[in-house]
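Work Package 3 (structural annotation) set out to generate three-dimensional models for the target panel prioritized at the project kickoff. During this period the team completed the workflow that converts sequence records into discrete structure tokens, so that structures can be stored uniformly alongside our sequence database. As a representative example, we reproduce one entry of 505 residues exactly as it appears in the project archive.
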Amino acid sequence: MRRFKHVLGLIMAYLFLCCSSQEKQIPNDPLPNILFIFADDMGYGDLGVYNPNSKVPTPNLDRLASEGIRFSDAYCPVSVCSPSRYALMTGEYPWRSWKKTRVMSNYEPSMIDEGTLTLPQMLQNAGYQTAGFGKWHLGTTFPTTDGKPPVGYGEFQHDRNGANLDFSKPVSDGPLDRGFDNWLGFSCASECWIFEDKQVMGAIIHDLYSIEAASGTENLEKIFLERFLPYITEKSINYLQRFKKSKSEKPFFLYFSPYVPHIPLAVDPDFRGKTEAGLYGDYVHELDHFVGQLLDELERLGLKENTLVLFASDNGSQFIATSSEDDGKKLSNSPSDEAVEFNPDTHHPNFPFFGTKWTAYEGGVRTPLIARWPDKFPKGKVSNQMIALNDILPTLASLVNEDLPVGSARDGHNLLPAFYGHQIEGERRESVVVRGSGNIYGYRQGKWKVVQNESFKSSESKGDGWELYNLQEDPGESRNLILEQPKIAEQLLKQLNDHLKSTGN
């Protein structure tokens, strides 16, 4: 019996080590390349793999999900751009930053304090080369000819936008100062300026934006917004090709952050009318096409097997429903705009959830999250582990064997076992704080969620401006239970307030 117990113990220890090795890189194993694809204002229900009734063909993203694992309960902590990007880059709730609410306006300085560890910085420390293409929207400082703030500072549109900018000098406090070795893209689309590393080299051209008042633009490359997605895709593919040719011993972290399907709906003419979901659906379909080009290039170059691909959106869609009858030109990036009314025959970008971008309802804060790493992550599996964008930094740190400094990624969890399809024992995310535009908060723990009432909620709110939902039984947040379960609501509100106090809000 003693011998049997000894042998059984050895077998159990062996099995434990085998399972553990699947949830953390073995030090001598080569580190994977990492491609993070971050959509802009794309809904949970836009992808066919999340919404069987979607009217938008997304074959490439659906294929990515079939070859990897997708999360059903993934959150972007805030339902607008900059705060969610802050959470991804830092592992912290954005109200820890100086920018307590709303998105970054034109020409504002970095939202990320200089001493805050970022995702690309962590990967640099682990031995990665880092490159980003597309949208930053976390602040960059532009030099001016008169030493004053750029014309248009703090706004989103100005007739004399950038009139005093000095293009002969480099920008600062931007992506290269927060962990990227290379960058090509803009900080904020309404600023217009495209910079490569730290030098402005181009400008976005669109009817909504103006560059006419700026001096020295004659030598800048002019790129129509409709061509920006193909442009950064081509540049990203060129980066992959150079990486392969260089035979670098350093793996890459490639951050592909297109401005799609964000308003204005700048759909390339080749993709207009290709879906039954209007210009918005056409834009999502176009994004899927160019994501497919990136994925195909990984395979063509022989990089697919050791590249971890992650896909997510920074918040939900602003549209309740879209159809081929929409007039996309009349829409702007504002919650005051009326979207197409709900109709069962139209496309529902945030299906099956209620709410849109700007709100703290599930439609605004749920994100489609997909992860593929061939022969490492399971194929076609769905995980219901609650996860937030804040968790990506500590999770990837665990994957690449990088110890995080004390005090960094304070609001993130290492959820790496979930990516391998395992249940997490011990530390796991049981709750998440979410926020709409401004100071509209929600808090989910387990199946329960409290959320502040929005003025445009279809049904009247009861309970001092707070609502309570059982997401397990009612994911669409249609039945407010706050009068039926006041004690549960009280407990959740206390936990929410404790969270907010602990994070300095």
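The longest strand covers residues 33-39.
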